[in-house]
Amino acid sequence: MEKMSSVFTKLTLGVALATAVVACNQNKTADKATATVAPAAGSTAAKSEIVYINQDTLLTKYNYVKDMTARLETKGKAAQADLQSRGQAFQREVAEYQKNAATMAADARATTEKHLQSKQQELQAYQQNTGAQVQQDQGAEQVKLYEKIADYVKQYAKDKGYKLVLTYQKGNANMLYGDPSLDVTADVLKGLNDAYAKDKK
């Protein structure tokens, strides 16, 4: 369960955003295709039709990600507590058997041992199933996150006239540098958080 805190830094957000490529104004001439578009609100510099989003910032400041993290951590802690409780109950049964084994009849001892072995197998299976469920929940949440961001970025790019939206992440060799004038992170983040706030109401 310790992996829960780090899983969000490994989300496939880069893929989600990088694939949100929008082909707009396809009937433009080749000369117009490289022209810059009107600057976004609050920006004084003209922007190219290719922009990027800082993935690290999005992961730390998008409120949906914060709530998603909290949901998964809550589920993870509940699953961990449940497994711990079941494990402790099993250990008590084992300790009780070990305490009384010397005075038990052979058939009673064999029956108890068989029961404990079966219970141990059940506990191991339950632990595996619980771990699989946690991973499934994580996967489902990641799909929702992907869809939210991809859908928003697609519409955002269409509205702004961008033809390509990339992502930047520290240490990601796919994008070593991007001019700050092409960074639309703050604008996208504000829009995502505003939309999420409306969804929560």
TrEMBL record:
SMART domains membership: OmpH
Q: Check the record and name the PROSITE patterns matching this protein.
A: PROKAR_LIPOPROTEIN
> What is any Pfam family matched here?
OmpH
Q: Which GO terms describe its molecular function?
A: unfolded protein binding
Q: Which terms under GO biological process does the entry name?
A: protein stabilization
Return the GO cellular component terms, semicolon-separated: cytosol
For this UniProt record, the keywords arranged alphabetically read as follows: Signal
Entry-linked PANTHER family: CHAPERONE PROTEIN SKP
What's this protein's family per the entry? Belongs to the Skp family.
Q: What's the name of the protein?
A: OmpH family outer membrane protein
**Organism from which the protein derives:** Mucilaginibacter agri
